UniProtKB/TrEMBL annotation:
<feature type="domain" description="HTH tetR-type">
    <location>
        <begin position="5"/>
        <end position="65"/>
    </location>
</feature>
<dbReference type="InterPro" id="IPR036271">
    <property type="entry name" value="Tet_transcr_reg_TetR-rel_C_sf"/>
</dbReference>
<keyword id="KW-0238">DNA-binding</keyword>
<protein>
    <recommendedName>
        <fullName>HTH tetR-type domain-containing protein</fullName>
    </recommendedName>
</protein>
<dbReference type="Pfam" id="PF00440">
    <property type="entry name" value="TetR_N"/>
</dbReference>
<feature type="DNA-binding region" description="H-T-H motif">
    <location>
        <begin position="28"/>
        <end position="47"/>
    </location>
</feature>
<dbReference type="InterPro" id="IPR009057">
    <property type="entry name" value="Homeodomain-like_sf"/>
</dbReference>
<dbReference type="InterPro" id="IPR001647">
    <property type="entry name" value="HTH_TetR"/>
</dbReference>
Length: 192
Protein backbone atom coordinates (compact mmCIF):
# COMPACT_ATOMS: atom_id res chain seq x y z
CA UNK A 1 0.00 0.00 0.00
CA UNK A 2 1.37 3.36 -1.02
CA UNK A 3 1.68 5.93 1.82
CA UNK A 4 -0.59 8.97 1.65
CA UNK A 5 1.10 12.08 0.31
CA UNK A 6 0.63 15.33 2.22
CA UNK A 7 1.03 18.74 0.68
CA UNK A 8 2.83 21.46 2.58
CA UNK A 9 -0.42 23.44 2.86
CA UNK A 10 -2.15 20.46 4.52
CA UNK A 11 0.63 20.21 7.09
CA UNK A 12 0.42 23.94 7.83
CA UNK A 13 -3.36 23.62 8.23
CA UNK A 14 -2.92 20.62 10.55
CA UNK A 15 -0.34 22.52 12.61
CA UNK A 16 -2.71 25.52 12.66
CA UNK A 17 -5.51 23.37 14.10
CA UNK A 18 -3.15 21.89 16.68
CA UNK A 19 -2.00 25.35 17.84
CA UNK A 20 -5.56 26.71 17.79
CA UNK A 21 -6.54 24.00 20.28
CA UNK A 22 -3.31 23.62 22.30
CA UNK A 23 -1.13 26.66 21.72
CA UNK A 24 2.56 25.94 21.21
CA UNK A 25 2.50 23.83 24.35
CA UNK A 26 4.08 20.51 23.39
CA UNK A 27 4.36 21.58 19.73
CA UNK A 28 6.29 18.56 18.53
CA UNK A 29 6.31 16.67 15.26
CA UNK A 30 4.83 13.66 17.05
CA UNK A 31 1.94 15.63 18.59
CA UNK A 32 1.11 17.46 15.36
CA UNK A 33 1.34 14.20 13.39
CA UNK A 34 -0.86 12.38 15.92
CA UNK A 35 -3.47 15.14 15.73
CA UNK A 36 -3.53 14.64 11.95
CA UNK A 37 -3.54 10.83 12.14
CA UNK A 38 -0.23 10.35 10.35
CA UNK A 39 3.46 9.68 10.95
CA UNK A 40 6.04 12.43 11.38
CA UNK A 41 7.67 11.63 8.03
CA UNK A 42 5.55 14.06 5.94
CA UNK A 43 6.38 16.91 8.33
CA UNK A 44 10.13 16.37 7.98
CA UNK A 45 9.77 15.87 4.22
CA UNK A 46 8.52 19.48 3.92
CA UNK A 47 10.16 21.21 6.92
CA UNK A 48 13.80 20.91 7.98
CA UNK A 49 12.80 21.12 11.66
CA UNK A 50 9.90 22.10 13.91
CA UNK A 51 11.15 25.68 14.21
CA UNK A 52 10.82 25.99 10.43
CA UNK A 53 7.22 24.73 10.63
CA UNK A 54 6.51 27.08 13.54
CA UNK A 55 7.93 30.10 11.71
CA UNK A 56 5.98 29.23 8.56
CA UNK A 57 2.81 28.79 10.60
CA UNK A 58 3.21 32.13 12.39
CA UNK A 59 3.80 33.92 9.09
CA UNK A 60 0.76 32.21 7.54
CA UNK A 61 -1.49 33.17 10.47
CA UNK A 62 -0.33 36.78 10.55
CA UNK A 63 -0.79 37.21 6.80
CA UNK A 64 -4.25 35.63 7.07
CA UNK A 65 -5.15 38.02 9.88
CA UNK A 66 -4.03 40.97 7.78
CA UNK A 67 -6.39 39.92 5.02
CA UNK A 68 -9.32 38.40 6.91
CA UNK A 69 -9.37 39.83 10.45
CA UNK A 70 -7.90 43.32 10.75
CA UNK A 71 -9.66 44.96 7.76
CA UNK A 72 -13.22 44.00 8.75
CA UNK A 73 -15.13 47.30 8.90
CA UNK A 74 -17.07 47.82 12.11
CA UNK A 75 -16.90 51.51 12.90
CA UNK A 76 -15.89 53.08 9.59
CA UNK A 77 -12.55 54.22 11.09
CA UNK A 78 -9.91 51.83 9.66
CA UNK A 79 -7.31 52.35 12.36
CA UNK A 80 -9.82 51.78 15.15
CA UNK A 81 -11.29 48.75 13.35
CA UNK A 82 -7.89 47.07 12.97
CA UNK A 83 -7.15 47.19 16.70
CA UNK A 84 -10.75 46.39 17.66
CA UNK A 85 -10.63 43.29 15.44
CA UNK A 86 -7.31 42.30 17.04
CA UNK A 87 -8.90 42.38 20.51
CA UNK A 88 -11.96 40.46 19.28
CA UNK A 89 -9.73 37.85 17.60
CA UNK A 90 -8.14 37.20 21.00
CA UNK A 91 -11.54 36.67 22.59
CA UNK A 92 -12.64 34.22 19.89
CA UNK A 93 -9.29 32.38 19.67
CA UNK A 94 -7.63 32.68 23.10
CA UNK A 95 -5.16 29.80 22.74
CA UNK A 96 -4.15 30.79 19.22
CA UNK A 97 -3.84 34.45 20.25
CA UNK A 98 -1.66 33.57 23.23
CA UNK A 99 0.47 31.22 21.14
CA UNK A 100 1.15 33.79 18.42
CA UNK A 101 1.16 37.12 20.23
CA UNK A 102 2.07 36.37 23.84
CA UNK A 103 3.99 33.10 24.26
CA UNK A 104 5.97 32.84 21.04
CA UNK A 105 9.31 34.46 21.81
CA UNK A 106 10.73 33.70 18.37
CA UNK A 107 7.89 35.50 16.61
CA UNK A 108 8.20 38.84 18.43
CA UNK A 109 10.22 40.68 15.76
CA UNK A 110 8.07 39.18 12.99
CA UNK A 111 4.81 40.10 14.73
CA UNK A 112 6.02 43.63 15.40
CA UNK A 113 7.17 44.11 11.80
CA UNK A 114 3.87 42.85 10.38
CA UNK A 115 1.93 44.98 12.84
CA UNK A 116 3.83 48.13 12.02
CA UNK A 117 3.66 47.54 8.27
CA UNK A 118 -0.10 46.98 8.52
CA UNK A 119 -0.43 50.12 10.65
CA UNK A 120 1.47 52.20 8.05
CA UNK A 121 -0.67 50.80 5.22
CA UNK A 122 -3.86 51.47 7.18
CA UNK A 123 -2.94 55.08 7.88
CA UNK A 124 -2.16 55.92 4.24
CA UNK A 125 -4.57 58.44 2.79
CA UNK A 126 -5.96 59.26 6.25
CA UNK A 127 -5.43 62.10 8.70
CA UNK A 128 -2.67 60.01 10.29
CA UNK A 129 -0.59 60.17 7.12
CA UNK A 130 0.74 63.57 8.23
CA UNK A 131 2.48 61.98 11.22
CA UNK A 132 6.26 61.87 11.15
CA UNK A 133 7.96 58.47 11.25
CA UNK A 134 8.63 58.89 14.97
CA UNK A 135 5.00 59.93 15.62
CA UNK A 136 3.76 56.94 13.59
CA UNK A 137 5.88 54.56 15.63
CA UNK A 138 4.81 56.16 18.92
CA UNK A 139 1.10 55.88 18.06
CA UNK A 140 1.50 52.33 16.74
CA UNK A 141 3.39 51.20 19.83
CA UNK A 142 0.86 52.78 22.19
CA UNK A 143 -2.02 51.10 20.36
CA UNK A 144 -0.21 47.76 20.27
CA UNK A 145 0.50 47.92 24.00
CA UNK A 146 -3.04 48.98 24.88
CA UNK A 147 -4.82 46.51 22.61
CA UNK A 148 -2.51 43.59 23.49
CA UNK A 149 -3.11 44.31 27.16
CA UNK A 150 -6.87 44.34 26.72
CA UNK A 151 -6.78 41.30 24.43
CA UNK A 152 -4.58 39.27 26.79
CA UNK A 153 -6.61 40.10 29.90
CA UNK A 154 -9.93 39.48 28.13
CA UNK A 155 -8.75 36.20 26.53
CA UNK A 156 -7.64 35.00 29.97
CA UNK A 157 -11.02 36.08 31.36
CA UNK A 158 -9.35 38.36 33.89
CA UNK A 159 -11.35 41.36 32.75
CA UNK A 160 -14.52 41.76 30.75
CA UNK A 161 -15.05 44.80 28.57
CA UNK A 162 -18.00 45.53 26.33
CA UNK A 163 -17.54 46.31 22.65
CA UNK A 164 -18.15 49.97 23.45
CA UNK A 165 -15.57 49.97 26.25
CA UNK A 166 -12.93 48.49 23.96
CA UNK A 167 -13.69 51.16 21.35
CA UNK A 168 -13.48 53.89 24.01
CA UNK A 169 -10.10 52.59 25.25
CA UNK A 170 -8.66 52.45 21.73
CA UNK A 171 -9.99 55.93 20.95
CA UNK A 172 -8.48 57.31 24.16
CA UNK A 173 -5.14 55.73 23.32
CA UNK A 174 -5.23 57.32 19.87
CA UNK A 175 -6.14 60.75 21.26
CA UNK A 176 -3.53 60.56 23.99
CA UNK A 177 -0.74 59.76 21.51
CA UNK A 178 -1.43 62.01 18.52
CA UNK A 179 0.44 65.31 18.42
CA UNK A 180 -1.39 68.28 19.87
CA UNK A 181 -1.62 69.88 16.41
CA UNK A 182 -3.87 67.00 15.29
CA UNK A 183 -5.91 66.46 18.46
CA UNK A 184 -9.14 68.19 17.37
CA UNK A 185 -9.06 66.78 13.84
CA UNK A 186 -8.55 63.24 15.16
CA UNK A 187 -11.20 63.69 17.85
CA UNK A 188 -13.69 64.73 15.15
CA UNK A 189 -12.70 61.77 12.93
CA UNK A 190 -13.28 59.40 15.86
CA UNK A 191 -16.74 60.95 16.46
CA UNK A 192 -15.81 61.91 19.99
Amino acid sequence: MRPKMYKKEQLIQGAYEYVRKNGFNKFTARNVADSMGMSTQPIYAHFSNMQNLKDTLIETIVVEMQHDVFPVAKTGEKLLDGFLNYVEFAQKNPKLFAAIFVESETSEPVIYQYSYRYFKDTTKDTIYEQLSEEEHRCLHDALLISSTGMATLMAAKIISLSHEQVIAEINETILHHVPERMYHEVKKALNM
